[in-house]
């Protein structure tokens, strides 16, 4: 069995047509048909049902296609790894991140890195806390920014980059809007706009409210950070957000107030897998991130 046969097979399976597959692959249709025939002969099964010029996968063909795509992906990953070892400046890094660092922290870091390493490519994936941690473990993500930073996961290595306080975001018509700061209990009678219950940012806010002596009333939820800000801007309710989410991104019609009591904050950091070695490109970016935050004295 040859690698090119698998590639030919996957292409034919995808378009269900030999002529179209041959055109895409830039090979003669006769050569393509011959290679597929040799593959079927070696396997001892028919992979396709022929219907004139069109073809469809047989049942065993579908099963073989699924496993072939996994095998080709593994080979592509292995090839990429070798290419990166030959030239780590041209690798691709899969980065995961939460919405709370998407508008400020992440673009700043990547921009600074690209100035020194312009050929490195990035595949960015935004997701929830669970998505990020599981993505690292399942090798779907190479490195992830996260907040708060997990402390005791045996499969993850975590570095804290900085800590940040939460602030209250209120409509500018709120009775406390003119104040410079507030104690959280002063929002006890307000409606809160928060992330859904399985989001870690919601847990931080709810735990802080409990610490202040009340259970927040949450009639409005949203998974999108900008949507939450928009609801506050419209006067629908109030919310608590990490301060970096409002850097140069304050929604109109709102004010932010520091929270005196309790002290609401989170750590923000980077996680990598414990059970595998980083590729050269990944290691290059990982070490850059650590040095970047040390040098700008972002630690608090």
Record keyword descriptors for this entry.
300 residues, alpha/beta, 8-stranded mixed β-sheet, two-stranded antiparallel ribbon, 12 strands
Plain-language structure description:
The chain has 300 residues and is of the alpha/beta class. The protein contains 9 helices and 12 strands. The protein has helices at residues 3-15, 18-25, 29-43, 59-86, 105-116, 129-137, 200-211, 225-233, 280-295, and strands at residues 48-51, 54-57, 92-97, 121-126, 143-146, 156-171, 181-182, 191-194, 217-221, 239-242, 254-259, 265-273. The strands form 3 sheets. Strands 3, 4, 5, 6, 7, 10, 11 and 12 form an 8-stranded mixed sheet that branches. Strands 1-2 form a two-stranded antiparallel sheet. The longest helix is centred in the N-terminal third of the chain and has 28 residues, at 59-86. It is elongated, with a radius of gyration of 26 Å. The termini are far apart.
Distance from N terminus to C terminus (CA atoms, Å) equals 58 Å
Coarse shape: elongated
Radius of gyration: 26 Å
List low-confidence stretches: none
Q: What's the helix-strand series?
A: HHHEEHEHEHEEEEHEHEEEH
Largest sheet: 8 strands, mixed
- Class by SSE composition: alpha/beta
Q: How helical, in percent, are the residues?
A: 40-55%
If you average the pLDDT, what whole number results? 92
Number of helices: 9
What is the secondary structure topology, with strand pairs?
Layout: H1 3-15, H2 18-25, H3 29-43, E1 48-51, E2 54-57, H4 59-86, E3 92-97, H5 105-116, E4 121-126, H6 129-137, E5 143-146, E6 156-171, E7 181-182, E8 191-194, H7 200-211, E9 217-221, H8 225-233, E10 239-242, E11 254-259, E12 265-273, H9 280-295
Parallel strand pairs: 3-4, 3-5, 7-11, 8-9
Antiparallel strand pairs: 1-2, 5-12, 6-10, 6-11, 6-12
Helix pairs in contact: 1-2, 1-3, 1-4
């Amino acid at each position: 069995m040859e690698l090119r046969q698998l590639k030919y097979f996957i292409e034919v399976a995808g378009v269900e047509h030999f002529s179209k597959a041959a055109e895409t692959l830039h090979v003669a249709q006769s050569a393509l048909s011959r290679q597929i025939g040799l593959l079927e002969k070696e396997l001892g099964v028919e992979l396709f049902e022929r219907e004139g010029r069109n073809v469809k996968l047989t049942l065993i063909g579908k099963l073989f296609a699924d496993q072939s795509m996994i095998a080709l992906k593994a080979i592509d990953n292995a090839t990429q790894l070798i290419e990166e070892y030959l030239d780590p400046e041209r690798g691709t890094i899969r980065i995961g991140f939460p919405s709370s660092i998407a508008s400020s922290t992440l673009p700043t870091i990547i921009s600074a890195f690209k100035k020194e390493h312009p050929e490195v490519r990035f595949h960015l994936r935004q997701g929830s806390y669970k998505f990020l941690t599981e993505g690292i473990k399942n090798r779907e993500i190479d490195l992830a920014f996260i907040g708060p930073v997990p402390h005791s996961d045996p499969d993850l290595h975590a570095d804290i980059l900085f800590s940040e306080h939460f602030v209250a975001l209120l409509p500018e018509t709120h009775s406390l809007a003119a104040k410079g700061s507030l104690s959280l209990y002063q929002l006890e009678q307000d409606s809160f706009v928060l992330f859904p219950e399985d989001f870690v940012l919601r847990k931080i806010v709810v735990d802080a409210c409990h610490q202040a002596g009340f259970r927040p009333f949450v009639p409005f939820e949203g998974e999108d950070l900008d949507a939450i800000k928009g609801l506050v801007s419209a006067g629908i309710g109030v919310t608590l957000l990490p301060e970096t989410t409002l850097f140069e991104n304050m929604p109109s019609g709102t004010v932010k107030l520091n929270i005196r009591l309790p002290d609401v904050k989170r750590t923000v950091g980077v996680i990598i897998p414990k059970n595998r070695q980083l590729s050269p490109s990944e290691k290059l970016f990982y070490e850059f991130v650590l040095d970047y935050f040390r040098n700008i004295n972002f630690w608090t």
